[in-house]
Amino acid sequence: MAKKESNLKNMLIALLSITLIASASLGGIYELTKEPIAAAKLEKKNNAIKQVIPEFDNNPTSEVYKAAVDNDTLYFYPGKKGGDIVGTAVETFTNLGFSGEIKVMVGFLPDGTINDVAVLEHEETPGLGDKMDRKKSDWSVQFQGKNPETFRLLVKKDGGDVDAITASTISSRAFCDALARAYEEYKSINDNK
Amino acid sequence: MEYIIIIISAIFVNNIVLNKFLGICPFIGVSGKIETATGMSGAVLFVMTIATLVTYLIQNYILIPFGIGFMQTITFILVIATLVQLVEIILKKVSPSLYQALGIFLPLITTNCAVLGVAIMAGQQDLNLMESIVFAIANSLGFGLALILFSGLREHLELAEVPGPMKGVPIAFIVAGLLAMAFMGFAGIV
Amino acid sequence: MNQLKNFTKGFIKENPVFALFLGLCPTLGVTTTAINGMGMGLATTFVLLMANIVVSLIKNFIPDKVRIPSFIVIIASFVTIVELTMQAYLPDLFEALGLFIPLIVVNCLVLGRAEAFASKNNLLSSAVDGLGMGLGFTFALTLLGAVREILGSGSIFGLKFIEGDGMLIFILSPGAFIALGYLIVIINKLSKKGA
Questions:
Q1: Contact between residue C168 and residue C46 where contact means Cβ atoms under 8 Å apart
Q2: Which of C99, A109, C191 lies closest to B125, judged by CA?
Q3: Which of A57, B58, B185, C65 has a CA between 20 and 30 Å from the CA of residue C149?
């Protein structure tokens, strides 16, 4: 079978049909995978929330509220049990990381005490700054049960109460910055309630 | 001030070749001589900047508003392929000698992961139009920097005494690794 | 065409990474662990196989002048299918591989095989070629990933066998270049001995 001749008509027909079939198939696959993709994203978020606040029986992501802070947004996910708030998970960030933005999920109890923290995204140096991730080390355990009113969210070098990661002062400072940002906003929202 | 950060980050700290691993094929393929490296870098600068500009417009005025974000890969690569064709045609007319020198590598810019990569990254980082253009120019300068530095090193390697099995590509990779290590020194500047 | 030879050439003799030096960007970029290398390799194999099949089927309907754009659209479609499917069902792998998944479309290996082989051979040979080259690519990526993971993290396929960190340089960018360079040297020496 000889190849089709390269005249304008044939070229247009070939390109058009290939593009149409491709777009149609992709549209179909997109429809098929839309829900599983959304579900996977939601599960990831819920897992982070579950990690940082006490047990809840509502759906925090559906009750999310936001606050615009420093050219970006903080997201607040309230966890409730039997209608009463047991904790609020705050999705916060810092741009002071050694290698860029770090996203952290911190869980506050109603009285402002930190229940737990979880790193969502970071590009810190493996073996150094990446120790902020619970999977790599227990460094972030020191924040559990601490209330920022009495536990200053600065590294000891800067006059605070936080033990910095060895040789990773910048990453540690950035982590504190993220927590402090979340706490400031959480406090101001709750004081105004 | 933001622009300075974008520029320094793209050229040195997150160098597209040595840190992000994009554009390796031409990096190994074209870096034999400094002249071809420079020519290739110029062509990439042109294609990358215009490609990022056009894909930015497509992403923000067509893909997102119509909810067809999943068409990103196809539309972006078609834009790049078209642009490369245009560059070929223009170059043939304007500078036939450069066209000859670049040879097969010109159409290969289409498959240069750096061009597509930068276009996608600009979208992911939510840069505005001006920032995207600066990002593209800076990244292509970073590509050129890595490419020209490396071709200088390779020209010297040609004259060095390299053990048999390491000749050619292997020693090139190892030296590239050392160059990447040097660039790691820039980490933390921004 | 001897299909067995067609299938096995992708493993050593014409291994895309070690012999043909194609598809180097993802090779260096995602091989921080063996699993990532394997995941990327298999995703690329899928695209390569499907693209080869489609190109081989419709090669006589594509006018010569528009064959490259046509191949690109076909390849890009399968890459998007992989993107969407991975996002839905393997979100952790999707995040780990990141930018390199859409970059499969510019993997010189895929476009190269479509152009050099699938557009000139029948369906069976093209499919076997795609599968063989893809698996050879997967083999290379998994091997490099394993080397980097063992040396850099002290683990293999996620199972740690030492306390703490290994030689971290190997999971950073210089390590990728250096590890690949030395792997090519070793494989070259081994294949020369056997030849």
A1: no
A2: C99
A3: B185
Chains that touch A (3 or more CB pairs under 8 A): B, C
Nearest Cα residue to B39 out of B22, B26, B53: B26
pLDDT given for residue A193 in this prediction: 63
Give the end-to-end CA distance of chain A in Å, rounded to a whole number. 77
B121 and C CB contact within 8 Å = yes
CA distance A175 to B189: 18
A90: left (phi over 0), alpha (psi -120 to 50) or beta: beta
What does the pLDDT read at residue B190? 61
> Rounded CA gap, B19 and B15, in Å?
5
Parallel/antiparallel/unpaired status of strands C155-156 and A114-121: unpaired
ipTM over 0.90: no
Task: Indicate the domain borders of chain C.
Answer: 3-194
Q: Is the pLDDT of residue B78 over 50?
A: yes
- Residue B111's alpha-carbon distances to A48, A75, A104, C25, in angstroms, are 38, 39, 36, 11
Q: Which of A99, A105, A104, A103 is nearest to A124 (CA)?
A: A99
Is some CB atom of chain A closer than 8 A to the CB atom of B74?
yes
Range of the domain at B22: 2-184
When divided into structural domains, chain B yields a total of 1
Nearest CA in chain B to A97: B188
Total number of residues shown for chain B: 190
Q: Are C27 and C15 in contact (CB under 8 A)?
A: no
Q: Which residues contact B34 (CB under 8 A, 6 or more apart)?
A: B148, B151, B152, B155
Do residues A98 and A167 lie in contact, with contact meaning Cβ atoms separated by under 8 Å? no
Nearest-angstrom CA–CA distance, B162 and B164: 6
pLDDT of residue C14: 85
Interface test with A, best of B13, B71, B79, B186 (most A CBs within 10 A): B71
Distance from CA of C60 to the nearest CA of B (A): 22
Identity at B134, one-letter amino acid code? V
Residue B1 confidence (pLDDT) = 61
Interface touch B188/A170, C-beta < 8 Å: yes
Measured distance CA(B146)–CA(B140) in Å, rounded: 10
Residue pair A164/A172 in contact (Cβ under 8 Å)? The answer is yes
Sign, CA torsion C116/C119/C125/C127: positive
